[in-house]
Fold each of these.
Amino acid sequence: MIAYLLRRVGYALPTMLGVAFLCFMLVHLAPGDPLVSILPPDASADLQKQLMRLYGFDRPLPVQFGHWVWRALQGDLGTSIATARPVVHEVFNAVGNTFILATLATLIGFTVGSLFGFVGGYFRNSWMDRAASVVSVIGVSLPHYWIGMVLVIIFSVQLMWLPPSGAGPSGSGQWQWDVAHVKYLLLPAFTMSFIPMGIVARTVRALVGDILAQEFVVGLRARGLGEFGVFRHVVKNCAPTALAVMGLQLGYLLGGSILIETVFSWPGTGFLLNQAIFQRDLPLLQGVILILALFFVGLNLAVDVLQMLLDPRIERT
Amino acid sequence: MPDANLPLSPPAVMLRDLHVSFTMPGKQINAVNGVDLLLRQGEVVALIGESGSGKSVTLRAIMRLLDERGTCMSGTLSVNGKDVLGMSSRALAAMRGKDVAMVFQEPLLALDPAYTIGNQIAETIRRHERITARDAAARALALFEKVCIPSPQRRLAAYPHELSGGMRQRAMIALALACHPKVLLADEPTTALDATVQIQILLLLRELQRDLGLSVIFVTHDIAAAVEVADRIAVMYAGRIVEEGSTRALISAPRHPYTIALLNSRRHAAEQRGTRLETIGGAPPDLAALPPGCAFAARCSRATDDCRAAQPLAFDVEPDHRVRCIHTGMTAATARI
C-alpha cells in the first residue's frame, strides 16, 4: 500500500519535470522575441538589453530553465506583464474561482449522469434508457457556450432570475458563500455540468450493464439478496471506474472551461488563460499552464490512489 | 439410503412437467421440456447430460434464478412443499440462501470480486438472521473451519481472486451453507477444478451432505463424479429426463440408448491403447426446433418411424428406474456390459 503510493509519486515526478520544461520552452518556441510584445517598437538597443537582463533572457537556456524552476519551487512565477501583480497571486485567485465552478458542475453532472447511467443500465433498451441516452447525447453534442447563451437568454434576460455574468455583485472577484454570490454561480455551473453529465451517463450505463450481466449477480440473488442488496454491490463494483472518470472530468473542467468562463465572464483559469493569450502576457501564460498541468498530474495521482483503495485488484498489477 | 417417503416431510424438491423457454429475437429456445424430478429429504440426485441438455437451466429454475425477462416457466415446482413458481419476489428472496443454496461452477465468477469472502458470508447470514456483525463473523470463521480451509482467519479477509481454485470452491461451499439450508443445488461444482482438487471437493461435499443431512441436486457431465456422490442419477437430453434410476441400476443396466452411448463413450476410454474411443455420432438437437418425436432419434441406431412420430412416454422398467424409450425391450438384452 505505502510502497504503491511511493511508486506512483515516483512516476509523477518526472512527468512534472517534463511539464515544467515544456512550459518554460513555450516562451522560446513561440515565434518572435518574447520581449517584442512589451517593448515599444522604437525602443533603443540599450533598453532592449536592459530588459533582457532584467528578465534573464541574456543567459544560456539551461541556466534560465534552472533558475525558473528554482524560483517556481519557491512559489515565484514572475510578474504579470499586464497587471504587474505576481503571477502566482493571479493564478491562485483564478484557480480558486474555477475550482468552485468546476466542482459544482462536476457534482451536478456526476449526480445527474450517474442517475441516467443507472436507469439506462438497469432498464436497458426501455423507453427510460432511450430518453436518458437522448438527453446525454444532446448534452455532449451541443456546443456548451451556445447552451450557456440560451440559458442566459431564458433565465437572465427573459425571466430575470439570475445574473448573466460575473462572479458576484461587487465584481471584485472575491468569492463569498452567500446567496448573492451563489446566484452568479448557478448558470455557469449548470451549463458546465453538461460536459461531465453525458460522459458519466454513458460510462455508468455501460458499467452497470456489464456488471449486471456477470455471474456474480446471479450469485448474489442466490444468497437471497433483494434488489437493494444487489444494487449496493453494483455500486461498489462500478465506483472505481466511475470515480476515475469523474476525477478526469473534474480535471478537464478545471483547465478546459475557456469558452464557458468567457461567456459568463467568470474570473477563473480559462478566462485568465484567454486574457493572457490575447494580451501576450507570457509569464502569466507560463504560470497558468504550469499550474494547470501540475494540477492534472496531481489529480491523476489522486484518482489512481483512490481507485486502488476501492478496488483491491489494482494494487497487484 | 435414507428412507424415502416419510409421511410428514414433503419432498425437498419436486418438479412436475417443468417447462422453461427463452424468448430470443425471432425464435424461442425450449431449454427444458417437461421435467419430472423428485428429490427426497436427505437424498443426492445427480443430473447428468451433455452441454445444452438443460441440466443447469433446470437447476437454476428451482431457485428461479433465470432472468425473468425473456424466460417463460410453467409446470409445478416446489421446494420443501412450498410452491416456488407462485412466490412473491420477497418470499423468493427469503427462501434463497436460507432454505435452498447454490454452489456455482466457477466461484471466481460467482463471488463479488470487490468484497472479501468473509464479508460476503457475513452479509448473507445477516440478510437472513438478526445477528450482530461480530457473531456473523464468528459464524463465518466456523464455516471456514468446517470446510477445512487452512488459516481460516486470514482467508476470510481475502478477496476471491487471492485464493486458489480449490480454496475458492471451499469458500463457495461455506457461503452456501452459511444459513443452514436443507437443500443444496450444486451446478458442476468440480468442473473448473484440477483433477486432484476435484476429488477433495467431492469428498467434502459428500461428507457435509451426510453430516448435515442435506438434500442435494448435483449437476455434472462427469459420470464418475456422479457415481461417487449420488444415490440416484437422472440423465437429461434436449431438456427432458430420458432415464432415471438408482445409481447402481443406471450404471450396471442402462436402458435408454442415450445413456448406453454416454456410458460407452467413457468406458472405452480406459481400455487399452489402440482401441477407438466410442463417440455419439451427430450433434445435440436445435432447442429452437425440436422434432415432434424422440429428440435422440436422429442419433440413435435403434430409431424407428414410431420414435420419430411421437414423444415416448416415461415408464418404469423396474421399481425406481424410469426410461423414456419405446425400445427398452431391445436395449434390455444388449445393454448389460
Amino acid sequence: MNDDRFYFLLTEYLDSQLDEGLELELKAELVRQGENVDDLENLRRMSVSMNRWKIPQPSERLKDNFYTLLAAEQQKQDNLVSGYWWRVLSEKFAFGLWMPRLAYGLVFLLLGYFAGITFSPSASQNGQIATLSAEVDQMREIMMLTLLNDPTASERLKAISTSHYLNDPDEKIIRALLKTLNNDPNENVRLAAVDALLMFSGIQEVREGLIGSINHQHSPMIQIALTDGMLALNEKEATPALQRLLQRKNLNPLVKTRVEQTIQKLI
Amino acid sequence: MKNISRIVVAALLLINLPAWAQEPETQQLVVPLSKPGERGKLIINLMNGGIEVTGYSGKDVIIDAREITKEEMKKIAVPWTSGEAALDQYFDLRSDMPEPAEAPVPDFYDLSNSFPDKKDNINRNTEGMKKIGGSTFHLTAEEKNNTVEILSDSWMQGLKLNIKIPKNFNLQLNTSMGGDVNIENIDGYLEIENPNGSIEAKGISGSAVLSSFNGSIKIDFDKVDPQKTMSFSTMTGDIEVKLPSSTKAMLKMKTDAGEIFTDFDMKVLQNNPKIDKENRGGTYKVSITKWIYGELNGGGQEYTFQSMNGSFFIRKK
C-alpha cells in the first residue's frame, strides 16, 4: 500500500469515517508494518475526546482592557514630543512617512548635479584652458629668446633646453635656434641647438636650415651631429651639402668617414 | 656710485734668448682689480701652449708667462691642424668675421712656409749657429671692472701661462692649438674650450661648461651650484666628473662608441622626461636623438654629457 492511501485511511479512521471493509484493510497494513493494532484504537478514542473539548471564548473585558492600555501608551508618546504645534503639524502632514524619502531624493539630486558639473567641463572652461596654455607657451618663448642672448653659455643652454617644452614653435624661435647653431661661440651651445632643432624636424624651415648649416660649421663635433641628424631623418635632400663638406680641405678624418657612410645610407 | 673702469695695459714683453741658453724666462704681470674682493672674471682667447689657473688668497691677478720649448710644442701639435683648419678655428671664435670658405685667405696667414717638407735648397742646419733677436711674444692683460682679459697678438706662438687669481672668479677660456688647461681651487663658473688638449679641474665650487675634441675632460667638484646647467662634450676623449653624493641633477648622456659608468644610485629613464610629461599632442615634436636620461637624487638641473668615442665616468664623493 502506498503512503498516500495509508494516510488517507488513517485520517478517515480517526474521524470515525471508515466502513468495515476499509477498516480491515487499514488494520492489515498496520500488522504488516509491525504496529500494534490496539494502539490504533486508543488513538481513535483520544482523537474523539479531543474534538469534544471546548475553546474558551474571551470575555467582554478583553476589549476594554486593550483600549485602556492603548490610551496609556499614546499618552506616553505625546509627553515625549514638546510643543503643541509640532504635534498638530506632525499629525496633519504625517512627517514620519514621507520626510525621509524626500530627504533622500533631494540629496541624490544634488549629488548628481555636482557630479555632472565636475566631470563635464563646460565650453567656456575649455576655452580658458586653451588660452592659458597659449599664454604659458608665449612666456616660455619670450624667456627663451631673452636667455639666448645671455653672455653666459650656461644660460644659453638653459634657453635651448626650454624649447623642449614648446609644442608649436613659431618662426621667431626657429630663426633664433638656427642663428645660435651658426653663430654661437660655444661648442656645447651649438650642439644643444642641433638637438633642439632636430626635435622640430617636421617643419620645413627647420630641415632647410639644418642642411644649410652643414657647410657653415667648422667644428668636427657639430659636423658629425648634423650628419647623424640627417641620417636619422633619412633626409636625402642633404646629400649635396654633405658631398660639398667632403670636399673641404683639412676635414677631420673621423668626420670624413662618418659623412661618407651617411651618404651611402641615404641613397 | 662711480663706476670706475680702468684699462691697464700691462706690458709689451720682449724676451731675448740665445738659442742654446737656459730655459725660457718667465715674465710676470700683476693685474690689480678695480673692486678687489668682489667677484671677477678671467677671459683668455686663442692661447696656445697650456694654461694653468689656480685660486689663491691674494687680491690681484698674477700672470706668469713663458714661451714653450720646441719639445713641448712637438707634443701638442696635432697633425691635421694646419693652415686652413687653424684659420677656420680662428674664425669660429670671431663670429662676426665672414665665412672662411668665401673670404680670401690673407697672405700673412699662409703657414705653408713652416711645413718641413718644402722643396728648396736652403741649408737649415743650425749647428754652431746662434739665434739672434730671439723670440718675442706680446702679451697684454686688460682689466675693466673686475674683468681681466689676456690677449696675445701672436696667436700662433706657444705660450705657457700660469695664473693665480682670487678664488671667487668666473673663467672663460678658449684655446686653439694645443696644450692642456688645468684649473684648481676656484669658486665660480667655468666655461672652457680646449679643442686639442685636455681640461682638468679640481677643487671647484660652482658649475662648468667644458668642451674638447681630442682631449679628455676631468673635473672634481667640491660643491655644485644647484641653479646652473652644465654641459661636457668631447669627440674622442673620455669624461670624468666627480660630484658630491647629494647632488640633485638630471643627466643627459650620449656616446656613440664609448661606455658610461657611474657609482651613483642613478635612476635611468627611458625617454626624454620632458617630452613625455608634457606631450599635449604637439604636431611637430619628434624624439630622434638617442639620449640616456639618468636622475640623481630626485633630479634637478640638466647636465649634458656627449661624445663620439669617449667614455663617461660619473663618480660620487
